[in-house]
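SUBJECT: A protein chain and its fold
Encoding: whole-number codes for local backbone shapes
Chain under study, with its fold:
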Amino acid sequence: MKGALALRSIKFWRTPMDHATDPRPIYALFPANLCFSGTAPAATLWFQSAILWFQSHVAARQPVFIWGGPGVGKSAIVRQLAEALKITLQDVRALLLDPVDLRGLPFLGSDGRSKWATPEFLPQNGSGILFLDELNAAPAMVQASCYQLVLDRKLGEYSLPNGWAIIAAGNRDSDRAVTTRMPTPLRNRFVHLEFEVDVQEWSEWAIQAGIRPEVIAFLRFRPELLSAFDRDANAFPSPRSWEFVSRILDSLDSQSNPAIEHEVIAGAVGAGAATEFSAFLRMFRELPNIDAILLNPTQEPVPENAAAQYAVASALAHCACDTNFDRICLYLNRLPTEFRVLCVRDATLREPAIRCTAGYTKWAVENHHAIA
């Protein structure tokens, strides 16, 4: 099964149950009224499809392998799944193991016969996810040592507890990452899923994760730069590297030398993307003052070009709250519909209390045709 999903933005809602010590299998931890949300292009695997897909294969004790390019968030989606279900995530990096490490060490038992001491990283009880990250980066012999674990959930005398699911992840051979072609028998033991990114889903995650509004606005304006893998470049755009850019901007002084700022950003996303982003950043910083917009929303100038409108909509969403949203709506009414919807959607995602304001109710009624 092949689909596309913004890996760094998956969200979960669940009933208030604490499964931290729940001994049930992982698939039993999905409550019947689990809800999902997310929008994406037709070719995209939606949140609901993704989680139900995982659920069905975990229930069948079917190991899953996640394929994707560098930096798209393969590991993040597995961590988020474990965190959402409040279960243990045991991260095992096969690349760090020798072929015999999975079996453990022999010792002499009380009956005079040799036995095997199971490695500490293999689960003994409870529920969780055994995550074999970067499995195909391990040498072929180490991958071969996983045959029995993946298919039979055993390693010699050791058995993986029923409550544990096996999920693996790795880069594609075409990515020129450090990979060893997965042996055909091991490939045939997994159900495979290839993930890609979607800018809207990533943006929803970024808003809640505190990513800088100028980064979100830029990637909405230039969505193709969210993930632009270049096998020959040291730095290239990816969800992970744009998160780096947000951190860089947090650490730099507002009066930093633009040339130095550009070089540092280029070190994260590459020269081409950094040049475009730096130009966008200059424009972003020259936008109408947000405080001035809030003080005089009907008179402050409205940008004319689309890039600036993306930027001001994102900036307003970043500062919106239930006490100023009425005034923000007065300014939004002067923007094109798509930017009004973008701003309100982002603002309510970051600050749900906005939905309870009179301004939001009025805006929703007046713009019902755009949000239906």
The chain has two domains: 7-194, 199-371. Confidence is low (pLDDT under 50) at residues 1-48.
